[in-house]
Specification:
By secondary structure, the protein is α/β, with parallel strands linked by helices. The chain has seven helices and seven strands; from the N terminus they run E-H-E-H-E-H-E-H-E-H-E-H-E-H. It starts with a strand and ends in a 14-residue tail after the last helix.
Length: 205
């Protein structure tokens, strides 16, 4: 199968995108091909609703291109899932939102799923990764102490690759959006699952 990653922001370099692809390919099944396309216009990063709306038109264009290029599924590379519902109305292939994928898994493996997002600008989260991890660590410990979470998910795709490390440290579920979205995309394709047209009426553009 072929899965396309739709990068909805301008702030990632080609080298950074390739780094993410290398990691995603370690998660995927042997017969899964993964590529990525990047928006040509829009926000540098998605920090809120204004950025999400600004990113929407390019997301829709790139998702439609993915279907036309023969991709079996598309993943919108943002845990805020910008333009997710609209994209599902536009195409017939599964469109995965990492935020939704993480919530689904966290809800399955815990009774108090808890989103963990450090208050650091998106494009700065990996500049000092040890500092970011320490902030996340303290946030998880605080939620546990208050009884506010028993399964956690990382609320930004800039935190890709950290789930396993944190799971091993805390011996608790910590769901990573990169893992969740790739595996759910593969499941949807293998099972022949597509979005219900009762939920997402087809929009022709």
């Amino acid at each position: 199968m072929k899965i396309r990653i739709v990068i909805p922001i301008l702030g990632l370099s080609e080298e950074q995108i390739e780094e993410r692809l290398r990691y995603l390919r370690t998660l995927a099944e042997r017969d899964t091909e993964i590529d990525a396309v990047k928006a040509e216009r829009g926000p540098q990063a998605i920090e809120g609703e204004v950025d999400a709306v600004e990113a929407g038109p390019e997301i829709l264009r790139l998702v439609r291109d993915a279907e036309r290029d023969g991709c079996d599924a598309a993943i919108i590379w943002c845990a805020g899932d910008p333009a997710l519902r609209a994209a599902r109305e536009l195409v017939d292939i599964p469109v995965i939102g990492p935020g939704e994928a993480m919530r689904i898994l966290a809800s399955m493996i815990g009774t108090k799923p808890c989103c963990i997002t450090p208050e650091i600008p998106v494009l700065e989260m990996r500049r000092d990764l040890n500092k970011t991890i320490e902030i996340i660590r303290r946030m998880i410990e605080d939620r546990m102490r208050k009884g506010e979470g028993d399964a956690f998910y990382l609320g930004c795709l800039a935190l890709w690759g950290l789930g396993r490390r944190l799971r091993e440290e805390f011996n608790l579920p910590v769901v990573d959006g990169s893992e969740a979205s790739i595996k759910l995309a593969e499941i949807a394709v293998k099972l022949g699952l597509k979005h219900s047209r009762l939920a997402y009426p087809k929009q022709i553009r």
